[in-house]
Amino acid sequence: MNHHNKHFLNYSIDVYKQVIDYPDAEELALERNDELTTKFQEDLKAKKFTEIESIRIRDKDKKLLVEINTSIQKTTLFNINRGKEIQLEIKKSLTNSFYKDELKRIEVFVYNNKHVKIN
Question: What does pTM read for this prediction?
Answer without folding.
Answer: 0.77
